[in-house]
Amino acid sequence: MTAFQVGRIEGRWRNFLPPIQGGSFRTYSDEEEQPSQIDDACESDHDSTSEDASAPASPIFDATERSSLLRRRALGNPGLRESSSVSSLSSAGSLEPNKMPKLSHMDARTQEEIELDLDKYPSLDPATQDDIARRYRQLDQLICAEGLYQCRYTDYMIEVCRYALLFSLSVFCLRLGWYSLSGLFLGLFWHQLVFTAHDAGHMGITHDFVYDTIIGVVIADFLGGLSLGWWKRNHNVHHIVTNSPEHDPDIEHIPLLAISHRFFESLRSTFYERIMTYNCVARFSVRYQHLLYYPLLMLGRFNLYVLSWEFLLRGLGPRKGVAWWHRWFEIAGHIFFWIWFGYGILYRSIPDARSRFLFVMISHMITGPLHVQITLSHFAMSTADLGIHESFPQKMLRTTMDVDCPAWLDFLHGGLQFQAIHHLYPRIPRHNLRRTQKLVQGFCDEVGIPYALYGFVDGNKQVVGRLADIARQAAILAQCQRTLASEGSSVGH
After folding, report:
1. Three-state secondary-structure class, residue 268
2. Cβ contact 449:397 at 8 Å
3. Predicted local confidence at residue 489, as pLDDT
4. Model confidence at 28, in pLDDT bands (50, 70, 90)?
5. Contacts of 418 (CB under 8 A, 6+ apart)
6. How far is CA 114 from CA 106, 110, 264, 383, 388, in A?
7. Secondary structure of residue 274 in the 3-state scheme
8. Is 408 helix (H, G, I), strand (E, B) or coil?
């Protein structure tokens, strides 16, 4: 990491708004110059205080207060922002009643959610957040001392035996002509494989980049037909900007699902680099999303095939450096997968189209619970942006829930039941997450951060309830738009 060090600062580090979220970037040569647009936008509204006047400017980013203020001004002045690309309310720092413009219904809803989180979670003042960060680092040291970063390879031997058993049962049933049962066991095999691919993608097995990449690609691409590279590109962003509607690809499912009312505004995805248009398909689907949620997830694996091939064919992964070979290794893996699965099983081993169809649908739909497990940890949690002063551990615990289950069921959840802990410490091997849970719960008690823990059924109720709430809001919005249209009104919603 020292190779990337550009300097040192004295005193406390102050966060700045990243360019991708609206922060203004300037080079060192422009250090003395202030962007005129920001100055013009801020001049009339910025009530200078002694603290603001003495706040030193960053040589890289404009001061946080200026960027936040520009975005607040843009909220009330459409001419200062691109349509559908800026948060309605980007941070808790924008919540100054005497400076806020008149809010639309959607913006008022956003503000309510932010205020709810501000009341529920620790204060964002520097002293409180610094204390949380300090205790978080102390907890990391304790986890290291307990040896919880060390992988127990005997646990993976048990995993390999389970995988071999499921695949053998699938082949055995296939030879006997029990195609539906064979598809079921193959789906369970894929379901279990994903957990180890997830571990490898986080370098949680050997902690070596090359070895874990090889393990992950063999499992995901050669055996599962999915791209580990696509998943890492997607998942790493998810870990950084968890549950951010504009930035987190794991919650960007328009036009089929929306877990926040803010998707009604046709936000721009910084990950996909396109507008997530709230079109006629979305207006229909979102209104019934609480009913469509499970059927859609049952078909989720087919979508992963498309995303994987798009990633590989477009060359969206690294092309230089130590990872230049990943793309070609993955393409070889996909060719291998479609030879053994598509040709060897579907074409050569199953005699008729009906049996092939049943085999494909059963084997793919049986992996549906995996997609439920993945979305369960985040879909019911907060999507509000409390700004750049919120500490990393507080944000992860605010946007992620854990699932309570008995230890003997850990193999079925594959570590996904400890997502809050995993988001705090992504490289802890999943077989150590249960032991880590008690330490994290103690940390939450010390700093006053609520630890979201639900049973599997209750967690699903929370998710479906959130989807139903957004669906009701979508129905109300549609009714308002129809009423305005029938009255010939030109007033926006």
Report:
1. strand
2. yes
3. 52
4. low
5. 402, 403, 430, 433, 434, 436, 437
6. 13, 6, 18, 9, 13
7. strand
8. helix
